[in-house]
Amino acid sequence: MITLFKIKKISQKGFTLIELLTSIAVVIILSAIVFANYRSGERQYALQRSTHKLAQDIRRIQEMATSTREFKCSGYPNPIIPPGGYGVYFPNLSPTTNNYYILFADCNGDSDYDSGEQLLGGTVNLEKGITISSHVPPANQSQAAWVLFTPPDPTTIFNKDNNNSTLTITLTTSSNPPKTKEVKMNTSGLIEVP
User: Fold this and answer.
1) Residues 6+ apart with CB under 8 A from 169
2) Is 70 exposed, middle or buried (0-12, 13-18, 19+ CB in 10 A)?
3) Residue whose C-alpha is closest to residue 166's, from 154, 143, 183
4) The pLDDT of residue 176 is above 80
5) What integer pLDDT is reported at residue 53 of this predicted model?
6) Structural domains of the chain ordered from first start
7) Can you say whether the dihedral through the CA atoms of 51, 53, 56, 58 is positive or negative?
8) What percent of the chain has pLDDT over 70?
9) What pTM was estimated for this model as a whole?
10) Most buried by CB count within 10 Å: which residue of 9, 42, 46, 142?
11) What is the spatial order of strands in the sheet that 86-90 belongs to?
């Protein structure tokens, strides 16, 4: 008797090479999209942090003038209330000076920032990739800008020889396209980040 053996086909479950390569390609594409958006989001958050830090530093300087805080000015034996008040200085805009600002006490009372002013903690550097792209006024961006708060009821002064009632500082990312945020101040003491 001839017996026929029934051969059962054993089905093996698994992935074909094509399915495996397709899955890897999809994961790579999704990873690239997420990574690109992460870098963009990181720069956006750096811009927000720098803008809010600038506004916070200006408010701190304003509070120092409001509270008539005494300061140890050179040439005076005891701490005094600086005759010119407290201020924030923004250097002229150039590639080497557009990434920091200076907090100062106007000890000589000339309502101006000069090299003899006393610094309050030195220069404040912006985060990497963030720059000051404009400060209006002055209209001529090669000039420096500053805001000064004179005690006891802080009078707000922008650039001693300038009669403008507002000052707008614009911060920009180095990304392409660049993103911007502003800090706006007016002579009534309002400081806002729109």
Assistant:
1) 54, 90, 132, 134, 135, 145, 182, 183
2) middle
3) 183
4) no
5) 95
6) 30-192 (3.55.40.10)
7) negative
8) 88
9) 0.77
10) 46
11) 118-125, 100-105, 86-90, 145-150, 155-158
- Residue 48 one-letter amino acid: Q
Dihedral angle sign, alpha carbons of residues 27, 33, 37, 38: positive
Of 152, 153, 154, 145, residue with least CA distance to 183 = 145
Given pLDDT bands bounded at 50, 70 and 90, which one contains residue 13? Answer: confident
Write out the two tokens for 63. Answer: 């509070």
Q: Mean pLDDT in the chain?
A: 84
Residue at token pair 């000039």: 143
- What gap in Å lies between CA 184 and CA 102, rounded to an integer? 17
CA pair distance 127, 171, nearest whole angstrom? 11
Q: How many helices (H) and strands (E) does the chain have?
A: 1, 9
**Cβ pair 162, 140 in contact under 8 A:** no
Task: Find out whether 179 and 44 touch, Cβ atoms under 8 Å.
Answer: yes
Q: Is the pLDDT of residue 5 over 80?
A: no
- Confidence check: pLDDT of 7 > 70: no
